[in-house]
Design brief:
mainly beta, nine-stranded antiparallel beta sheet, 3 helices, binds manganese (II) ion, about 10% helix, globular, seven-stranded antiparallel beta sheet
């Protein structure tokens, strides 16, 4: 049985642009090794926004060396990037953007959501790329709700939407560079959840809503339970109806050197990224 390594809570709230009031749950800046291949997770909301005609969010900015994964729970996000990707996603949808060698993009509340206003809740996850893929071609996967397999867990304990990875033969919608499971789980009160996951891989449970008990520790809203990598079996009790994001993946055991929106393996590569960005090598797009 997997043991709890530690529980991570938000280090505080900050705004990303003027649209995303986020709690930073973890970052490679504080815990690089423990969460690999996951680099960072920001949890936005739940926050109520009034209707508006202004464009809330964050304007053109670059990324290089990793992937940004945006999971919308409530509200809507629109995106545009220099690789030609773009679109608006809503509740249940996921945007999996491979920045790799470099993109310039913008992220805003979708026009539709801005017009109506309401509850906004999303997660943005940064997923590292192995050094051999950091300079791969950028890519954009728009994964709408209907493309994500939804499987029933045993004993009617709830459902898991397989965003990436594999659950007993159901294959996740996202194409990934390294082995990982990213599952959006809705769990019913009073059930014991038992999952078999690859030994040696990173495993963490993020509770958006509700309460679970894992290895005798209570984990509540906006808390991340990081498990030891030993053993395959992960078990936890669902104490209240819960929404939980499972993160599980093969660690990338390579140096991490980051600077703002760039995450590479060395300081030299960071300097090159800054230089390339200043020379306009990340491309352009029209707003
Ligand atoms: Mn971004």
């Amino acid at each position: 049985m997997k043991k709890l390594a530690f529980i991570k809570r938000s280090s505080g709230r900050h705004w990303v642009g003027d649209g995303f009031p986020v709690r930073g749950i973890f970052s490679y800046r504080d815990i690089a090794h423990d969460l690999s291949p996951f680099l960072l997770m920001d949890y936005a909301g739940p926050t109520d926004f009034p209707p508006t005609t202004s464009k809330l969010g964050v304007g053109q900015h670059p990324h290089r060396g990793f992937e940004t994964v945006t999971i919308v729970y409530s509200g809507g996000v629109s995106h545009k990037d220099s690789s030609g990707g773009g679109g608006a996603i809503g509740p249940g949808d996921v945007q999996w953007m491979t920045a790799a060698s470099g993109v310039l993009h913008e992220e805003f509340h979708s026009e539709e959501f801005a017009r109506t206003g309401g509850a906004f809740e999303m997660i943005q996850l940064w997923v590292n790329l192995p050094s051999k893929d950091k300079m791969a071609e950028p890519n954009y996967q728009e994964i709408v709700r209907d493309q994500i397999p939804k499987v029933a867990l045993k004993n009617n304990a709830g459902t898991a939407r397989i965003i990436a990875g594999d659950y007993e033969g159901s294959h996740g919608a996202a194409k990934t560079y390294t082995a990982m499971n990213v599952w959006d789980m809705n769990l019913k009160e009073g059930h014991l959840i038992s999952l078999d996951l690859p030994e040696g891989h990173t495993t963490a449970l993020f509770v958006l809503k509700g309460k679970i008990r894992v290895d005798n520790h209570l984990v509540g809203s906006a808390e991340l339970a990081v498990m030891e990598r030993d053993n395959e079996k992960l078990e936890f009790d669902v104490l209240e109806e819960s929404t939980v994001l499972l993160l599980n993946g093969e660690p990338i055991n390579e140096p991490i050197v980051g600077h703002g929106p760039f995450v590479m393996n060395s300081k030299e590569e960071i300097l090159t990224a800054i230089e390339d960005f200043n020379r306009g090598k990340f491309g352009t797009f029209n707003r």
